[in-house]
Amino acid sequence: MIYMAQTTQFIVRIDKKLKMEAQKKAQDKLGIGLGTLTKLFLKSFTAKSEIVFYLGDKEFDEKLNELLKSENVKTALKKLGNSV
Prior knowledge:
extended; single chain; 2 domains; mainly alpha; 4 helices
């Protein structure tokens, strides 16, 4: 018996500039298109129990730094410190 893979379409609306930059980077750095990159991300995302980001990405580093300085994180760390 021959099994055929079932596929579905996945449509995402994003900013045109972001799409163009992502297409260029995916092609220049990895030699693949956005469709392939998206499939790789989704396979990795569903296969792992945690979400991993590329450290060294300036924008990610800035957002992480901003998050770590937030009042929510400060409060959570204080609670954690008081519980041990």
